[in-house]
Amino acid sequence: MPDRLSALDASFLYLEDPATPMHVGGVAVFRRPRSGFAYEQLVALIEQRLPLVPRYRQKVVGVPGHLARPVWVDDPDFDVHYHVRRSALPRPGTDAQLFDLVGRLMARPLDQTRPLWEAYLVEGLARGHVALVTKTHQALVDGIRTIDFGQVILDAAPQPPEPAPDDEIWVARRLPGPTRLVLDAVAETVRRPREIVENARSAATDALATTQKVAGVLNAVVSAIGLAARPAQAGPLNAPVGRARLFAVSRARLDDLRGVRAKHGGTVNDVVLTVIAGGLRSWLLMRGEQITSSTKVRALVPLAVRDEEADGTVPGMLGNKVTAHLVDLPVGESNPFVRLHHVSHAMRPHNDSVRSVAASALLRVGGFAPPTLHSLGARAAASFSQRIFNVVVTNVPGPQIPLYAGTARMTEMFPVMPLGKNQALAIGVTSYDGGVYFGLTGDRTAMSDVDVLARMLEESVEELLTAVRA
């Protein structure tokens, strides 16, 4: 019997529309080795790793009459060259040109009749660099059966890709016909009769029924957080979004943020949130927004927690246990260290929780875990009403050693987070090999100046460092 999508996974398909595609992305920049890093080499590497993530050769098929949620089935027409594509910038390609391309690629929904992922090799960058831009649907990555592809194509040492042995060539399983899909659905609903009513309701009101069922679980989490009893302060970040996107980045050094933490307390995550608060403060003032000492921007911050049912091993910590924490960023406070103390106080309940996962533990998770955890963070954020927060911020620590795709060394990695309805900005943060990389996704109309905000984040870092050195 094919695997059936969970209610949460199905909701991401039902809720998707042209203005709010439900995929998470990443931009990894590589230094091209002397031996080259051509498109054919990337395809060979991905084909070599596909057996580690079999879901990436499966597509979603609906059940006739909506008698049950859709199922995952092998795609008999799977073509790796359709999913792994090639693009180029006019040499020498600049960061601005690369990130403009990223915004355009991320604005396009994935084809739901095929496996729900795409990858683009972008050539022509300055200094002999290339970039890999990935798109993965939120219905695909659940952190248990399927992790993000970025977690399996990177290695701690150069690994030239090898062709798969002839006896390991993948053959798709036969597609189930409509009759088999219906019989499986009936057999499943006999075992769980409540499913009949729920699935019939979803047939009439697709997204609404499924989302309400998911929201019932999440409301308890929101109530426990406490802030959700009142909506977030209105502002320019909560605006209708269109189909077009802009993408911008900021960079910092991890040692600099650790130095701020060492002198003023808190965690590196607290410092990151303080940097974002400072950047948003400058951006709001630049826009002429009225700011008082009590002005706040509420961030929804997905955080990894321990799986209480796991066996205690580090890989078991990952699972799909990501909870969302609401944090009021004190953008009305002019002193950067008072902002840091406010953020640290707001984050303390999570940091002190026995279920919180320390950054050091996440760094021991096999593979390059940030892409998976950013995807799980996006899944958590998508399930909340945009009325209770202004911006999503995911911050996932990555390894502090160089990683390689084949023989190409990765130099930078930027998360690309999706936007929800009436959510004009989303921010992803990843640390890697001594750097901290901010990826800012903005609606092209409501956040036409997202590149200005990106510069202000770097100025916010410098503001903290200048005060530390004084």
Question: What is the secondary structure topology, with strand pairs?
Answer:
Elements: E1 3-4, H1 7-15, E2 23-31, H2 39-49, E3 58-61, E4 71-74, H3 80-83, E5 84-93, H4 95-106, E6 117-125, E7 129-137, H5 178-191, H6 194-204, H7 206-225, E8 245-253, H8 254-264, H9 268-286, E9 297-304, H10 314-318, E10 322-329, H11 336-351, H12 359-362, H13 370-382, E11 391-397, E12 404-405, E13 408-416, E14 425-432, E15 435-443, H14 450-469
Structure description:
One of its GO terms (cellular component) is plasma membrane. It catalyses: an acyl-CoA + a 1,2-diacyl-sn-glycerol = a triacyl-sn-glycerol + CoA. Residues 5-272 form the O-acyltransferase WSD1-like N-terminal domain. It comes from Actinokineospora iranica. InterPro entries: Acyl_transf_WS/DGAT, O-acyltransferase_WSD1-like, O-acyltransferase_WSD1_C, O-acyltransferase_WSD1_N. By secondary structure, this protein is of the alpha+beta class. The chain folds into two domains: 3-168, Chloramphenicol acetyltransferase-like domain (Chloramphenicol Acetyltransferase); 221-402 and 411-469, 2-Layer Sandwich (Chloramphenicol Acetyltransferase), CATH 3.30.559.30. The chain is 36% helix and 23% strand. The chain is built from 14 helices and 15 strands. The protein has helices spanning 7-15, 39-49, 80-83, 95-106, 178-191, 194-204, 206-225, 254-264, 268-286, 314-318, 336-351, 359-362, 370-382, 450-469, and strands at 3-4, 23-31, 58-61, 71-74, 84-93, 117-125, 129-137, 245-253, 297-304, 322-329, 391-397, 404-405, 408-416, 425-432, 435-443. The strands form three sheets. It has a six-stranded mixed beta sheet with strand order 5-6-7-2-13-12, sandwiched between helices. Strands 8-15-14-11-9-10 form a six-stranded mixed beta sheet. A hairpin with a 2-residue loop joins β12 and β13 (408-416). α8 (254-264) packs across α14 and α9 (268-286) crosses α14 (450-469). It starts with a strand and ends with a helix. The model is unreliable at 200-226, 309-320 and 361-366 (pLDDT under 50).
